[in-house]
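I hope you will forgive my troubling you with a question about protein structure. The matter concerns a single protein, recorded as an amino acid sequence and a row of backbone structure tokens. Please examine both parts with care and let me know of anything in them that strikes you as inconsistent. Thank you for your consideration; the sequence and its tokens are set out here:
***
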Amino acid sequence: MQHRKLYAGLGGMLLAGTAAVAGIQASSATESEKPAAAPSRVHLQADLDALNDSGASGHVHAEFKGRKADVRINARGLAKNLPHAQHLHFGAEARNECPNVFDDANNDLRLNVAEGVPDYGPILKSLTTTGDMSPKSGLAVDRFPTTPKGFEKYERVVNFAPGAVLRAIKSGKGVIVIHGVDHNGNGAYDFAGAGASELDPSLPAEATDPALCGVLR
């Protein structure tokens, strides 16, 4: 009787061990068949505040999924029926914030792009309506939103390269800047308002001066 009990006990242990191995194998097979985890979503927001007495305001929402971001901009009070260049700025050496009146280095009572760069950094992405979104399209005024009645409603998916810069943007160091200020209120970008742009002397400064700025948090 004792031998039969011992054999029965050993048999039970062997069966249990076999079942455990089978379970591990099944679990491993299941794990290998599982799809890769979906990239986590990161939501960033920015309130856009007026620069250069533009009188404009706006809001940005950026939903990141992995290396792609769905960027939506709603703004009002911009110069009517005129193109507005807009960019996502970031700089490793920049303060990654919006400029203020104290950044008016030449005391001409307005902020130009160059005066704001130490704050918001260089262009990382050009938020164009179509085509290229690299810094090369920073002045592609024919591919930026125009604003009937001063309103802008924009949405586009932006692709990013993996790495430290993308992590910095997701952590709250990206700055959205919308450009274009009709300084003299005549309904056009002209040289009478503020002279030539420091970025391109063939363009009026009114076309490139920043009108709105906000940090994505």
The chain has a mean pLDDT of 87.
